[in-house]
Design brief:
alpha+beta; Heat Shock Protein 90; kinase; 54% helix; histidine kinase; disordered C terminus; five-stranded mixed sheet; 12 helices; elongated
Length: 457
Amino acid sequence: MTDVLLYLLVAMAVTAGVTLWVTFQVDTEDRLVVASSAGALALGLCIALAFSTHRAIRAGRTTARLRRLETGLARLVDEVLPGAARRIRDGASADTVLAELGPEAADVPRGVLNAAVREVGVSERQRSAAMAACANAAGRVQAMATSMLADLREMEGRHAENVLGDLLKLDHATAQTGRLADSIAVLTGARSGRRWTRPIVMESVLRGAMGRIQAYQRVQVHSSSGAAVVGYAAEDVMHALAELMDNATRFSAPSEEVHVYVEELNTGVVVTIEDGGLGMKPQALARAEAAVSTREPLDLAKVPGTRLGLVVVGSLARKHRLQVYFRPSSRGGTGVVLRIPQQLVIHPREEEPPPAAPRTADTVRSAAGETATTNATTTAVLDAAPAAADDDTAEITELPKRPRGETLAAAVRATEAGRTPRKRTEKRTDIGARFSAFQQGRRSTTPDETAGEDDTL
């Protein structure tokens, strides 16, 4: 208001001076008329000038206020709210976050800030409750699948071969259910699976991954690697490979095989999975690369409802610093390269297998899934467990491996071709050898008395 009065006084002084000058320039008889007219004109001009000045000043103040408000809202959106959301996700309450933001958010509209932070707090509590419920359900399914697999293993050692094939099918389906539960656990931040106390060789890791997918018969493994994955990461590496193998079999023709190659480098172990499908379009390739990227954290809002495999692989890659790449396959489809870093890879010292301990009929039934070494190229290492004081039976404490060149599908086909009922009194000492390739793919992912891993509850 002071500025308006100042401008008005200046305008009145100027117009008064001009009016006096004009008045004295005319004749004496016309001065009264000219002075009255000039005075009225000057008064109107002063009023108009004062009003215009007042409007301009108000407009300037309003513009400055809007600019401050815009700056505050931009800071609210870009800095304050994301920081508050992170604090709430870390476990802080909405009231605590608002108290911490007091001086920092002086230029931010307090009403908007309070409402936004409290709404974020409510949403985060709901999200945490939903994630905890999903993680709990996944853990229960994991425990049930583990228990069912143990029961199936026990039955596989007691029943005749005409029932054993059906039990193996149930075993395979249960393993796939366990993989799905592990995937849900990964997405919800829960424990993804078991923890092994010792390294698992790549051969067993690949067989375990094959055993968790539906079309395992189409997977051909080409590996002569003697490397092993450290125990705490073996289960997650196995899970990631299973998801990639499953994608390769699903997005290629049923008649096409999926080939898996293993190569040891100075920087770790590289596993390449190639299929003969139709390849990936640029948009699909971009989505796949974003899903397995280790640079961005998991955002469940971007997770598709039907394709969770690559998202799970990305979560496991971020956890263990795995690297996943996509490229055209030499077979015409898509090739996926998974690099396991050197810190997760060790080279165990090869040992001569100890002499085999005497085996009773009960031992044969309880170890129906174990495999005897069949030729010189077998790379399995069998460790005899200490015999009990009142029993001379021995147990295998290391998962045996199939001979190189023998595929899982071939072993199952040979089993189905030679399936004949036999008498229950006969010692079925060859059951484990004939079904070992299939069972070991399952057994490498199931708790065992000698495996040394912890179950998920």
